[in-house]
Amino acid sequence: MISEPEFVGGADFDGREVLTEADPPPSAARDRSRRPWAWALTGALVASALWGGGLYGYGRWSDGREEEAADLGGYRVAENLCQRAGLKALETVLGKRSGAASRPSLDEPALAQSSCSVTFGEGAREQGVEVVYTLHKVTDPGPEFGALVKHQGPAKSVGGVGEEAYFEDRGEDGGKLWVLDGQAVLELFTYRSYYGDENGEVVERETPDLSGIDVPMAQDALALLAELRK
Fold it and tell me: What pTM was estimated for this model as a whole?
């Protein structure tokens, strides 16, 4: 993870100057009268140098040089996320895996993101799981992670999954799991498929018992995080 830059340095003082009650000679008085201007210039130069260092660490230089990359901890951009997301634990609860569809992925110098929708069961018991994987290549997602999760709804902390994880219980609709591990953020949530009849009315469908869905969801998240580091 990227840490805040540490600024080290300071101005050197002239050790030859001695304080006395006598009036300084004219030359010394002239030198001292010019010193505030010199200090102001020195301060401006130091501030400019530090600001330039900050731009290098967190942004892009005006001449087009790239941002510094973060330590990704072995995580890679995900190709074929649907294939890599086995979701075997959820399959035992939701029924046999029956389909999957990937959405357009993003791969930019600062960020990569891919998502996949997986369906389980058939007919009246069809259930879906959405998987979203985001890899932050430059900035640290840690400071904002918890705040963003809690803003979306009530969620409880989950231990043993990544560096930080939260689960939101959504009752008969299942739930949503957020996981932070280094520069990687993983989201898994369940959803029900709704279909309409010839009159446009929503057809009620059976749903499996999704109480305790957080356990298989956490197991699948751990397995997928390990897969994404290969």
Answer: 0.68
Going by C-alpha positions, the residue among 73, 78, 91 that lies closest to residue 227 is 78
Per-residue pLDDT reduced to its tens digit, 154-196: 999 999 999 999 999 999 889 999 999 999 999 999 998 766 6
Query: How many whole angstroms separate alpha carbon 137 and alpha carbon 134?
Result: 9
DSSP string for residues in 38-79: HHHHHHHHHHHHHHHHHHHHHS--TT-PPPPPP--TT----S
**Domain shared by 64 and 118, yes or no:** no
d(Cα 22, Cα 120) in Å, to the nearest integer? 92
How many separate domains does the chain show? 2
| Structural domain includes residue 102 | yes
Whether 24 maps to a domain, the answer reads yes
